[in-house]
């Protein structure tokens, strides 16, 4: 074959290799794209895993010396580290998915114009949104799995429900990735992301992460219960301590609705921004 | 005729190949109050190289985006590959190749990965995509850059990679928006050569350009578009025949008042155009015009006799030059 012909690819009348219909899983090719980029960046993987671990070691084990054991609402007693560890799992699921869905998506949407090229193919805006979301969940699941193993090794889990904790982390990731991606479509500059930091930091500190809900002033408790991270913490803590209850179903419902609404808004907005 | 069509209808739908790959009727595009495309009619037939020639902002890119099924039409009708872009966007896009003006290459991937990943978006298998990627890299002469980062490529190489990417799905229609804008002459000629080969192999090309030499080199047929409307349509040679004289005598005088000089030249040709820096006299015989000017005692600082080009056609039809 000479270099001057694209040979059978382009020849007139040649049998065309008809592309497979992409169907409902077209988004997986965007996941594949992200994986190719990411596998070169192993340092990013290490940091994503280290973050919750460092929090756990400093706040959990460090402060445990000062505050002693805890009694959970169901009456069981746990160490402070056992109390905090699932909250760190929930918080890191939030942070990780937000990172991908906000900074990552903004970079590709506004600077790299990756999606402009993607949308010139059979993929649709919803495939872009789903692809990014799934990718962030895959990453989140890896981190969560690793963190839960560390928790188990350190003896911070006291229930068989723990095996579901990585799933809970994925549900949390779904909620924040969906919402974060939707918000990102309205961002104009990198400075706008300060609003997300502004929302995330108080949530991280005050979602019953470091002390139980009943220690908050009465007038503030309902506010805490409105935040999505609170529900994430409820979910993870219930599973790793074994204090499971009906409030966990509410948490799952809350997070799934949040992620789904975010996902729908994000796909519409991506379409509105790029398919003008 | 009536009886025949009834007969055909009775026989069921006729499976004829779609000869018109693009059919636009009174096609319009508005962005808010701005009307970018103001009712154009275009038919692009299979196998031809069709061009949109016009200055920047004429509505070329807007039209390309509508045809590429990434921008909804604001009015009129549009069929691409016999389908409605509004309803069947993914099906249309699966059979198009698009080379956008600003490349939109994925800078986080290598040269070869750009092709591999893009091919997968069309549902091609990994093996198929790998085979095509290597073949296309050879075609655009980028094989030795396969592992490079996209950011390390020059403008010309990026453009070639974009062309290769647009061919990954073996498109029936290749859309090129300003394919050689911003490239140096050598890079332009190499790209033209590749596009010409594609055309020879039967790929239908649809391109926009504001370079009249590009339009003349590549296009079998073209429309001249200005301010969102088509002002002329035909083959390059036919457009020149219809709208300009055979030759042009370009005269530069050492005076500020080109218009004053031009007034005295009208009888020498079919038409006289005054540009800021020169006067153009359109005539069948440009040399005769040059001689006559000399005889009149007018001393031009420089005289150039040349064939009419699409640039002259554009000037004639819009009163402006393409570079404006």
Rg measurement of chain A, Å: 22 Å
Spatial order of the strands in the main sheet of chain B? 5-6-7-3-8-9
Largest interface: A-B, 39 and 47 residues
Largest sheet of chain B: 6 strands, mixed
Describe the structure.
The complex is a heterodimer of chains A (276) and B (324). With 276 residues, chain A is mainly alpha-helical. Chain A has one domain. Helices cover 69% and strands 2% of the residues of chain A. Chain A has helices at 7-10, 28-38, 42-67, 80-111, 114-118, 125-153, 165-184, 194-205, 218-226, 228-241, 247-274; strands at 69-71, 77-79. A two-stranded antiparallel sheet of chain A has the order 1-2. In chain A, helix 2 packs across helix 6, helix 6 (125-153) runs antiparallel to helix 7 and helix 7 packs parallel to helix 11 (247-274). Chain A starts with 6 loop residues before the first helix and ends with a helix. The relative contact order of chain A is 0.14. In chain B, helix 4 (111-121) crosses helix 5 and helix 9 (236-243) crosses helix 12 (310-318). The longest helix of chain B has 16 residues, at 185-200. In chain B, 35% of the residues lie in helices and 26% in strands. With 324 residues, chain B is α/β, with parallel strands linked by helices. In chain B, strands 5-6-7-3-8-9 form a six-stranded mixed β-sheet, with helices on both faces. Chain B has two domains: 20-233, P-loop containing nucleotide triphosphate hydrolases (Rossmann fold, 3-Layer(aba) Sandwich), CATH 3.40.50.300; 245-307, 2-Layer Sandwich (Alpha-Beta Plaits). Classes of the chains: A mainly alpha (276), B alpha/beta (324).
